[in-house]
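Re: [ENG-882] Designed sequences occasionally contain unexpected residues at chain ends

Forwarding the minimal case from QA. Structure tokens:
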């Protein structure tokens, strides 16, 4: 079956829906690119400074988590592909939620196995804390369902071409096709991703300065980060 394609203004690339044949490359992309560069994960790794044995456990968590995410049919995957090499250059993962299927517990419960490393457990805990600051359905009382942009990433060799924004536009197009969805939602952890969301039309409804975030002992978790760095929950009515 032919894959669905979306419009793309980036020369030498096209945007399409992923299928099962793409799974292994998607797992590699998410494990080796997204989890190596995502703001919170990157800082947690720097601060943890894991030894060889700890790094093995973290790498196992990376593979298990991303494999579960890619293979879960509840998540839709949209990819950017380099025409000349057929290499997957970037990915957007999105999922639609209702009041009934919205997870009340943290994100690790969305996966088959719990993380074994402190770094991953902490990451899920921080994301859960941020997510709980806003009750989407209380804030938007007319919202039956919303689509969350779970993550977007582009390979370093394919950046600075506008692919991330093209992926976001395709995700918006998919979300608008569901008559019950009238809201886009996402948690954005970097200035770049926040700017892309603003360009799409999203606005921030909650911000947390992560440079001031402390653990239970009062120690700053994300040391060395820009003191103005915020994590932002951003939404957009559609």
């Amino acid at each position: 079956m032919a894959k669905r394609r979306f419009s793309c203004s980036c020369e030498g690339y096209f945007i399409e829906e992923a299928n099962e044949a793409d799974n292994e490359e998607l797992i590699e992309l998410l494990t080796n690119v997204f989890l190596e560069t995502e703001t919170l994960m990157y800082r947690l790794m720097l601060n943890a400074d894991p030894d060889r044995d700890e790094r093995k456990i973290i790498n196992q968590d990376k593979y298990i988590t991303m494999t579960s995410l890619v293979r879960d049919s509840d998540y839709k995957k949209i990819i950017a592909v380099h025409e000349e090499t057929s290499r997957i250059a970037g990915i957007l993962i999105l999922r639609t939620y209702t009041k009934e299927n919205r997870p009340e517990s943290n994100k690790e419960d969305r996966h088959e196995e719990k993380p074994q490393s402190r770094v991953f457990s902490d990451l899920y805990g921080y994301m859960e804390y941020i997510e709980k600051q806003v009750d989407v359905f209380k804030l938007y009382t007319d919202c039956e369902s919303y689509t969350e942009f779970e993550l977007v990433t582009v390979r370093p060799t394919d950046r600075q071409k506008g692919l991330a924004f093209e992926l976001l536009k395709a995700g918006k197009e998919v979300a608008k096709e569901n008559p019950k969805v009238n809201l886009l939602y996402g948690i954005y952890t970097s200035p770049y991703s926040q700017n892309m969301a603003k360009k799409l039309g999203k606005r921030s409804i909650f911000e947390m300065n992560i440079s001031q975030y402390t653990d239970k002992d009062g120690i700053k978790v994300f040391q060395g980060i820009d003191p103005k760095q915020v994590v932002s929950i951003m939404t957009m009515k559609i």
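QA comment: On inspection the terminal residues look reasonable. The two ends are 30 Å apart (CA to CA). Proposing we downgrade this to a documentation issue.
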